[in-house]
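Ticket opened by: R.M.
Priority: normal
Category: complex prediction / small molecule

The reporter submitted a protein together with pyridoxal-5'-phosphate and asked that the result be attached to this ticket for the collaborator who will pick it up next week. Submitted input follows.
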Amino acid sequence: MDDREFETRQIHAGYEPNEHGALVPPISPSVTFGYESPTEMVGEYRYARMSEPTREVVDGLIADLEGGAHGRAFASGMAAINALYTAVLSAGDHVVAGQNLYAESHTLLTRVFSTFGVDVTFADTTDLDAVADAIRPETALVYFETPTNPLLSVSDIAGVVEVAAVEGGEDAETDGPVVAVDNTFASPYLQRPLALGVDVVVESLTKYVSGHSDVVAGATVTNDPDLDEALAFVQYNQGATPSPFDCFLVARGAKTLAPRMRTHCENARAIAERLDEHPAVECVYYPGLDSHPNHDVAAEQMRDFGGMVSLELDATLEETSAVLSETEVFALAESLGGVESLIEQPAPMTHQDLTADELAAAGLSESLVRLSVGTEHVDDLIADLESAIETVLG
Ligand SMILES: *Cc1c(COP(=O)(O)O)cnc(C)c1O
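Result attached by the on-call engineer:
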């Protein structure tokens, strides 16, 4: 499938019609697979936690879409991220992590891996000098998101890869730290970090890739067979594998990733432009706006600017919460990347585990609002937001 366009590969990669000619991958619930004799399997599968046919469809599909050799589906995005941390880190290692990580990716480092003797420095990865300053000889992993959650900062992926190779390689015995990107917010349709030089991509398939808010799943993709082997070892031993039904849902949802993303991007841009001129809106964070500080690098490395928009209202925490309770088309809920539009307030919702100091350090104001712009008609979405703001703020 390598030479075909994305829209074709998203429908066909990872699966060949079986002996019945079934065009849709069958859900294969079998946990165990037979032996001919104690030393000879009937086929290639042995036990489902190790590998099974429905999961292999997703493994192959996500590898293809990310442009990598080895894909691995997990029970959740966090299971994939935890597997990456576990596969790469040991006691005494140091991590350079992006400063606006997804809350649980941050918490795993500060509250779990820290207790195993792993040290972490959070750095502004949009600033390559800050990345260079943070890297030490014992840095084993450089891990970041772009665009970030929820401020949609965009880091120069190829730039970070280059800095990590130079800074990490000089005195270290290895050829520098593993560089990993969480590609959840962009999806492989908008951005392919492996082509920009990263060692491994992790992502939540729960979001854009499956796209219908009906399955929790995640993945890792790499071109490095040793790293994939290490991820497989963690996956098999820790056991965070997705069910065959979950894999079926991911593969079904992914068939429409490209057209969904095009609509998400088109709607998000129109909403960002409209809100940017709204008197009750203090500022809008959207990489597609010329005013966004990382607009140029986003235009360079992404196909389009994504479906997430954040904004600060000229309002208190309580007034902001009241606006969120007023929307009718935008559902007040966490998560993102589904066809339905969602609205949320990071301070009391997705980022509630961060202390006030951590929120401030991450630049998250109490009146910050995050939109996951869906694929409804954009006029209905804009009218819904404007009416909720008008009702509360006048
Ligand atoms: C949702 C999300 C995750 C975690 O994925 P789950 O599938 O919910 O475990 C990780 N990173 C980012 C950026 C996310 O949005």
